[in-house]
């Protein structure tokens, strides 16, 4: 049938068709929003991010052939690279100072002060084993650095 012969009332979409299309689009948008990751900071997520950055710092120490240090305190953690006899900030922006996410805190540790200092040597070895406990109202998580430089997440409790 020729479209030019159709009456104007039959051309386009009906109101019902438009309402059905909008309802389907609304349901799809709702499904997407409900499946987005939570923005609530948890110790487990903060521990994963810290562990990845610690492993990157260890790798940087091996590749550059220079010690890399990390200092952890109540506000966050920072990395430094040993260059020409002094500690300098790494050029890699991923290893710049990071603050703990809101609600996540560095848990106090027996026998350690408020700040903790760890150094990876040019072979990737840590100067001492270290357990870093992060806590929040929704649980705790532990990042462990072994003497051989291996970084692992363990002891997570909901």
TrEMBL record:
NCBIfam families reported for this sequence: IV_pilin_GFxxxE
InterPro entries (UniProt xref): N_methyl_site, Pilin-like, T2SS_GspH, T2SS_protein-GspH
Protein family per UniProt: Belongs to the GSP H family.
Name recorded for this polypeptide: Type II secretion system protein H
Positions of the General secretion pathway GspH domain: 46-149
Keyword annotations of the record: Cell inner membrane, Cell membrane, Membrane, Methylation, Transmembrane, Transmembrane helix
Compartment(s): Cell inner membrane
Pfam families for this protein: GspH (PF12019), N_methyl (PF07963)
Source organism per UniProt: Novosphingobium capsulatum
């Amino acid at each position: 049938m020729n479209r030019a012969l159709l009456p104007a009332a039959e051309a386009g979409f009906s109101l019902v068709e438009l309402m059905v299309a909008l309802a389907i689009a609304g349901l799809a948008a709702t499904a997407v929003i409900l499946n987005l990751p939570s923005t609530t900071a948890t110790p487990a997520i903060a521990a994963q991010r810290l562990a990845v950055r610690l492993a990157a710092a260890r790798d940087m120490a091996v590749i550059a052939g220079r010690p890399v240090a990390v200092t952890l305190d109540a506000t966050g953690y920072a990395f430094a690279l040993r260059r020409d006899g002094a500690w300098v900030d790494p050029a890699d922006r991923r290893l710049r100072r990071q603050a703990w996410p809101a609600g996540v805190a560095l848990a106090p540790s027996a026998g350690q002060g408020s700040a903790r200092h760890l150094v990876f040597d040019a072979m990737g070895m840590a100067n001492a084993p270290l357990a870093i406990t992060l806590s929040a109202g929704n649980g705790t998580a532990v990042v462990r650095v072994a003497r051989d430089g291996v970084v692992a997440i363990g002891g997570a409790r909901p």
